[in-house]
Amino acid sequence: MHPELRREWWVAVAIITIAGLLGALAGAPLAGVAAGLGLVVILLLRKLARLHGWLARGRGSPIPELGGLWDEIIREAHRQDRDSARHKERLTGLFDRLQAAASVMPDAMVVLTRHDVIEWANPPAERLLGLRVERDIGARIVHLVRDPVFGDYLAAGDYREPLILNGPVEPMAVALQIIPFGANEKLVMARDITHVRQLEEMRQHFVADVSHELRTPLTVLQGFLETFADLFEDQEGEVRSSIALMREQVERMRRLVDDLLALSRLETTPARAHDETVDMGTLLKGLTDIAIVLGADRGQRVEVEGCAANLVGNLEELRSAFTNLVQNAVRHTPAGGLIRLTWRVDAGEGRFAVADTGEGIAERHIPFLTQRFYRVDSGRSRAAGGTGLGLAIVAKVLLRHDARLTVESALGRGSTFTCVFPSSRIKPPADPSPPSPPPV
């Protein structure tokens, strides 16, 4: 027991005992004890009243002297109050410094509370998002940033990838990222990427222009080399082999130019507003024929499994993407290997898959396969005739069709590339009976 509490206890016992003895001398011991208890209660209430008055006046007022344990309580409360004030002052200073630092950042920062209400924003939010900081505190951000794409992005809750928006002033481009934190709170960060977008557009136009300019001289070279091949057809030796090598390299450059042009068109032209119904049965048969022809000289086998559902999209773009997957499978499948083409609807999603029994891909390479010119094995890919752009084209086409590419692979056991289309892109067949797979 605390010494001061023990002292208070003995004082109360002494008062009650003395009052009891006085009552016994007067012939009423119980009355004396009751009087002693009443006196103790009165003293306690008096000290409580003084303590309450001190608290009501504020802890900055003079500390009352109540004696004993009461003084200990008041001193401890006063000490904790001073510590709390110092801690609050440090936190306030830190918060002020953080706000000052955020205010001078070039990127916009907006703190959203529950229901996406603006709680705080730094000055760059006015330039990048069109807000008025002092006026818009307490307003919902979707009422101020009115781009419907932003509203959909905010409501979807998937903030792994940044959102690219047009800024409040043309031709500004803004990259926006949302970071959830706390209890249903969000931090919105926006960066001006106008310069980056302009550089990207310059790169795209440069690639397109150069690719167009290269087509003509490559066509001329190819024509002359075919003429030379006919002229020296009966000759053996270095001349004929040199012409064959030149024709092979010109053909490789032509494929590279064609892929660059295809990628440039996907990057610079908008997706079609009115998509067509793509007959997947016909498309699957055409892809099967390509796989059979390309793999015939190596004895590759082709298996096909289809369903009656069709896709809603751009036929030429889809054919280009799927053909790239088939060509990759043929290119990386050994002689006598198996290539399997599959089109099915699973859980409302359309899945077009190309599986092979090739050498497989190490897991560390899979996240980078759709990057331009990325090669798992540079020497092997070039020897097989690839340009390094096929999967980049596939990724662009799927993005324009609200779809995604998944890759499953194991070294020595082959790979499976699957194009996954949302239910909105699936058109059920008029006849629910499944068709037989196309002939192989």
Write a concise synopsis of the structure shown:
With 440 residues, the protein is of the alpha+beta class.
What would you say this structure looks like, in words?
With 440 residues, the protein is an alpha+beta fold. The protein folds into four domains: 3-99, no CATH class; 105-192, 2-Layer Sandwich (Beta-Lactamase), CATH 3.30.450.20; 199-268, Helix Hairpins; 276-427, 2-Layer Sandwich (Heat Shock Protein 90). The chain has twelve helices and 13 strands. It has helices at 3-25, 29-57, 69-103, 124-129, 133-136, 148-156, 194-231, 238-268, 280-295, 315-331, 378-383, 390-400; strands at residues 108-112, 118-121, 163-166, 173-181, 185-192, 276-278, 301-305, 310-313, 338-346, 349-356, 404-410, 414-421, 426-427. It has a five-stranded antiparallel sheet, with helices on both faces. A five-stranded mixed sheet has the order 7-9-10-12-11, with helices on one face. A hairpin with a 2-residue loop joins strand 9 (338-346) and strand 10 (349-356). Helix 1 packs antiparallel against helix 2 and helix 8 (238-268) packs parallel to helix 12 (390-400). It is elongated, with a radius of gyration of 40 Å. The termini are far apart. The mean pLDDT is 81.
Average pLDDT for all residues: 81
The end-to-end distance, rounded to whole angstroms, is 94 Å
Given the C-alpha coordinates, what overall shape results?
elongated
Helix coverage percent = 40-55%
Q: What's the story with the biggest beta sheet?
A: 5 strands, antiparallel
Which class of the largest domain in CATH terms? Answer: Alpha Beta
In the CATH hierarchy, the third-tier topology of the largest domain is known as Heat Shock Protein 90
| Rg for CA atoms | 40 Å
Strand content: 15-25%
Integer count of domains: 4
